[in-house]
Amino acid sequence: MSGRSGTGELPVEVTSFVGRKEEVRQVRRLLQASRLVTVTGGAGIGKSRVAVEAASGVRRAFADGVRFVELAGVSDPGHLEEAVAQALDLADPSDRPDVEALADHLRDRQTLLLLDTCEHLVDACARLAQTLLESSPELRILATSRQSLGVPGEHIVALAPMPLPGPRAVESVAVLARCDSVALFLERVTAVDPHYTLTAGNAAQVAEVCARLDGIPLAIELVAVRMRTLPIGRILGLLDDRLWLLSGLTADRRHPTVGATVEWSHELCTDDERLLWSRLPVFVSTFDAAAAEGVCADGALPAERILPALLGLVDKSIVIPVRRGEGTVYRLLDIIREYGAARLLESGEREWLRRRHLRHYLELAHRGRKVGPDADQVELWGRIRRDWPNIRAALDLCAEDPAEHETGLNMASTLWYLWIACGMLREGHHHLERLLARCLPGTASWSWATLILAYVAIARGHLDEARLLLERCRRASPPGGDTLRLLLLKLSGTLAVIEGDLRGGEARLSAVVDRLGPGPHLPEVLLPSMVELGLSLIWRGETAASREVFLRCRRLCEEQGNAWARAYADYGLGLVAMAEGDADRAASHARDSLRVKRHFSDAMAIVLCLELLAAAAVDRGEPARAGRLLSAARTGWRDKGLLGYPLMVEDSARCAELVRRSLSRRDYDQAAREGAALGLEGAIAYALGEEEAAGGAVRRDAGWAPLTRREREVAELVAEGLTNRQIAHRLMVVQRTVDSHVEHILAKLGFSARAQVAAWATRRRLGGSAAPENA
Questions:
Q1: What is the pLDDT of residues 2-23, one digit of tens each?
Q2: Which of these CATH numbers, 1.10.10.10, 3.90.180.10, 3.10.20.30, 3.90.79.10, describes 269-348?
Q3: pTM for this predicted structure
Q4: Which parts of 370-516 fold into alpha helices (H)?
Q5: In CATH, what number does 355-472 get?
């Protein structure tokens, strides 16, 4: 299945969906009455495409949405719950067993969960599906697999090959074109040869090609792209030879036509394309062209020949392009991956490539750690989070191979921002703890990993564990320079603040801020220290001192291009404004922070901003709105298993009490139900005014179509009169990113001037016409 524009979202297909109308209708009908539907069939039969097409047509029936779980890159059954949790944006569910946390999250939600490619995890998928369905009465599961899951109540839609033309269909071009297999063949042929048409003269040959390929979609697509360079008569001759010769020799003996077609496609590739095909299975998930060059290039296949070979494989439908934001990544269909992996094993290059793969993602991890005014931190960290399956594979190699243990410690420590800033606490804890258990203490790598593990433990609320780790590191007299010792001091200060020793914590945090200059570990030491120092000061009522700390922190963040920490500074300034009685300014700071934090999936910051916006709403006389926001925040704390600072918890409780006093019991309960039903992303949209609660549900303002969420943010700032440079400064991205967004907005709306965008965005905010109006 192709990739997704975001974690858990349905894939955005590059090619059109053809045929299979009855099968799609059958899946949709079954989902209305059945809680588990499995689409089964052989390799290349189109299971994933049918499931996604069916799911996209019923998404409105599920108040809490459709979530897509891609399992092709999950080789270990122990990672199944983690993959589902990430698709649900529940990356670090809690300290309970994952399946229990998943069940609790889904218990009262109307969700359709699409588990794609279950066959290699069929037992684990069956157990998980049964557990979740038993505990979550509104849940529906749609699965794809080469075999059924075998769960009681499962309904199976077994996909057969696409219908073939009947013996008399060739007598009518119109009748022949309506046959699904022929329609798919023609659709893919015209993609490579727009002038090709079905005629009475070629009808019999087209029908014969589809028949020779047994109506199997993947085989049809692989052959159709050959029409760019080969006449159909020549293709028929080649099929005669290959299908007869290879039908008994292919890896997939259950589906010899698919295997034979894959073999034939391999033969027709160039030498470079064949070599690249054999190396690409080292990627366990999607990859971009730069990754292919960095991992797969060598003397036999130089880097400058990688892209032409990759595009050649795309042209031949061997590699599938996937839209991701404004770029393109690539993936292999399962049977294509299996074939390439077999060639890789034969070549003896597998271990060499795995190490190249490790070095590439280690370098990517280090790039993510380095922020700067010319880097788009949001985009880079988002890319790294989406590349998690490949990063996990690299960390797994480090844990397996004693020669790479130190490399693994380096990588897991470097990825602190993925664990702390991007909501992957459980994963970080697992990999750091596993690698530390394999290494002897006393090295700089060991010390850094121990401190980052303590950082993660604090964020998860494991304070006793964090204390033990800090003491262990302190006793080891860690090497690694002053910056490492200051991280130890910073974490000690954080613990003190959490435990209520504000002055003691401030002393440690102030020492870090005063002593630490620019250095290689600045992002994880200085800026978080400043944020925590500012929070402690405001809890002691030192608002002026707190404001100065947050303003200094924000200036440093802007100089360094650190959007993640800058958003925390904005949140802190919101707290200062609230303490000074300025609810409007507090809400403005909180919204600025929220706009950035949503792109990092920083759950802790998101729920803190929701609580601050709730406090501002109470102050402005909007208790129902405050109740919804508080309820959404409480759900976020629970679902994410996050630690709230005790003083934060007290502030939230006081706000909730004010809301309770301001509303009747009925209105309070209704607001709480509506807030809990929003989900974290829905709560963000509601908090930012993108959605309004109506009738206990959330109604999206469709007037902003066809813009993406990020494009809407840019359009709103254009309406405020900001230049592209100012917008880039506000959103903490590089200007070229904003330039690109503005160009896309103009193109999508059919406008030619920023003034038109500004007028259009203003009308949207005022509830005007949804249609673009050309000025």
A1: 333 446 677 766 677 788 888 8
A2: 1.10.10.10
A3: 0.72
A4: 377-386, 388-400, 405-414, 416-420, 425-436, 444-460, 463-475, 482-498, 502-515
A5: 1.25.40
